[in-house]
Design a protein that fits this description.
The protein is mainly alpha-helical. The protein has a domain at 1-36 and 167-282. Helix content is 68%, strand content 0%. Helix 11 runs antiparallel to helix 12 (202-219) and helix 12 (202-219) runs antiparallel to helix 13. The longest helix is centred in the last third of the chain and has 58 residues, at 224-281. The two termini are 18 Å apart.
Amino acid sequence: MRYILLLAAIHILSSPALADFREVFEREFLLKPWAGAEVEESVCVECHTSEIMKPEYRHVAEEWKLSWHYQNRVSCHDCHGGDPEDAAMSMSPQRGFLGTPGYTAVPEFCGKCHVGILRNYLESGHGKALKAGKRGPNCVTCHGSHGISKASIEIINDRLCSRCHSYERAKSMKQALFLVEKKIENIEKDLEDLRASGVYTEDERKALFRTHAEFRALFHTIDVSLVKNRTDEFTKKLDVIQERIEETSSELAFRRNFSAFIMLLFAGMAVVVFLLSKTYMD
């Protein structure tokens, strides 16, 4: 009878933990894909990696597979249009196919998705230089075309920026961006740590993505004063996200400590039951 009561107590005390585990399990595994949907192979990729493709174009698909676009399931037809499932119509204008855009058309080409960035770029010194003399930098100048990596302030560097002007101008912008970018980097790491611990962080990730995207769009104004003036605004937004992360981390630490306490309690109860049973038998 004593053992039955002990098992019942263990079950009752551990039920909240089991409920929490079920909730996390459902959110992380049952209600969403484990690793996201993979980008399906298309006739575009098949053709560009085949022997019939000119060597100078054969690298395109391989570069894309290493890109930030590929990781976020942005495929060839998302940018270039056409039909990725029909070889005969893959490059058909009737299916919306657009080949390599002209140099001055690149911003609008990329701006189909990056709307906020396009708007700020066109009003910036870079955009005005491109429009006026057709020699200003476009998106590809800084980011590349198919092997696009995740945006980072490291793209602002002496080697790249000094191709068009002195690095001192770009360096002042990088310094203005540093505080917010560093805070974003730290939050991303904290979110990854929580996710590795089995904590649902999707809401915080979405909030961080929106804030980050807005800040990146602001950068494309190439206006150091504007970036500095709005740094506090973005810092406050990030502080709100950070506070939520810290609250979650504190709750997680409490649950771990509580679980350790319960385990010790169970162990103590087991010892007491064992001693009582020995005494009773004696």
